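Reply to dn_fold:

You asked what the input looked like. This is it:
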Amino acid sequence: VVLNKQIPNMGIVNIYLCSYPVRPATMTYDDVTHLTAKIKPKQQRVELEMAIDAMSPNYCRSKGEQIALNVDGTSYDETNTYSAKMMDKQTFSSIQATTNTSRYAAAVFRKGELHVTPLTGILQMRPSFSYLDKADNKTREREATNEGTFFCFYFFHFFTRTVRFARPESEQARQRRIQSYEFLQKKQAEEPWIHLRYHGVKDGRSEHEKQYLFCQSVDTSENSELVKSPKEYLAMLMPPLTEEKVVKPVGPSNVLSMAQLRTLPLGEQVKTLMKNVKVMPFANLMGLLASGTDSTAVLRCIQQVALLVQGNWVVKSDVLYPKNTCSPHSGVPAEVLCRGRDFVMWRFTLERSVMRKEVASIIKLPPEDVKEFLEHVAVPRVNRGWEFLLPTDVDFIKKHPDVAHRQNMLWLGIQSKLEKVFVFSKEDFMPKSCPQPEPVHIPGDHVLKVAQERAHTNQSTLMKELTVKKENFKAGGSVCIKQEPISDREDEPMDTSSCLLNGSVNGFPGAASPSFDHANGNRAGPAPELQDFVNKTFRKHFVLTLSEFKRLFNLHLASMPAGQVVIQSLSDRILQDAILLNHCRQIPVPFPAQTTAAPDEQKVFGLWETGEDFDKHRRLLYDLFSKNYRIRRTMLQAKLAQELSEPSKEDMDRLLRECCMSQAGMWYLKGTIQS
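and this is what came back:
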């Protein structure tokens, strides 16, 4: 055996072993025309361009021309990938089959001698589809050009330049940047390509270079690595026996025996069990702990490391993914993983099964991570997605209602955070109601006749209620708001007045409104607690749809301590009247005909009066949105300049920030953007 450790006078200083794993060994590329070859030695990257036989009967000419058109466009340029206006070549790029080549070598046997040469790298040549990326970039550029043409006229003379100073970079941030994908891509792009000339297997230059695989020196003394005495070879093959110490078997580092587990503090025992099991009923947890363990103490510990889902305990995300760690699959930071897993757990608090595609489309994480989240707490079911792993533990919920209530409050807080991050609402995942039947047009005289008959039937009941209200009022009693029962009856009285949908005239409650005092002819205000909530909410958000207001109101009720909820069972109409009585108006936004917004999402309310001069700006904005579903900033600026005065940039920014949301250069009232 001759070790070819140093090759003198060699033109090629690195030896690479290349293979084509996507093609059988019998189908070589020896007879294919090689157009170009290049290499990046430090990265061990090789690229080869090979010609495609466009005259072959197996070649689809129309498809080749379409690919060239997508990649290069219609114009001719020196940088075009396909100069012949058809895909007449393909590129092969290398990937490293292994990073450690110290165990491999190229060997040639000649005249009873085995000549061994170390390998620099082992590469696999695979087809490169970078031309598809170029085609995508061309498409994006064309779309961006088409969208940007409209705005060029307006902003031609207005340019500002902001100078920003980079903050000092911490060592931790620098390490994250170095490990990031963009940084690695940039470092790889910095090494220049070295262009090579390809020589075939049977080429004379190839035969000449192949001679360097044979060791030039026949003196075996230079190859001391492979020259040993017979005794040394025998000792290597059969090493002498040594006395071995008896060592107790050691299990994996993440495994503890029950005896070892019970030596830990109670909190660590619970944390270790939950971290390994992921999801567990409370009864099973108590069974794994030592007999006589106080269940109250265990409840305190479990709430620090787990959350209640369907009566079962699921380990918290930050326990599985501690701070400053990342995903073993994709390298995603722990903070992002925790948000995605919390969303999956929250979905299981609403229903038994979830769909993997629906979850992945919202949390936007790699499929491996999404699958890991689901495998922790669920099992796949045919045609039903992923079903929660354990049945709902109703016994625990009944036995510990205070714990269940506290956990529900925690989930409401988590839901609020998730809604801000992933931009959704709980109603998006609630089962859709049955489609409403088409409205039936009834003649006016028939409506009047039905109303008269119903009034005659209910006259005695109404007179009794009116008498009771008058007596209460004379006695100084408080006026209560009647709660509207939820009814599916189809014979509900039709509102024939020319008023808003909520029974109010000109934006304020009328006689048909539940908050109208029929005994005195005046409006009886809603509960003070409700008025206070409406006032605070609209001074914070300024514009809300009825759907969003109801969501915030439910969160407010849920955050109140148990037993202290003073506002209950309010109908939609009472909520709307309460809004209108607190200096707000309904804005009749003209939604498009094909809108998917629910009726509650189409009822938009805005704060009308705060006592500030800025109220005029809001009213002009509301007026614009009563005629337009969406507007441009320039349209609002022109309206304000025409009606009031030229607005400052600060006023424009404040107005849009308080009342609107932006998408694709257009401005919408809050809550009215349709996905």
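The mean pLDDT is 77.
Hope that clears it up.
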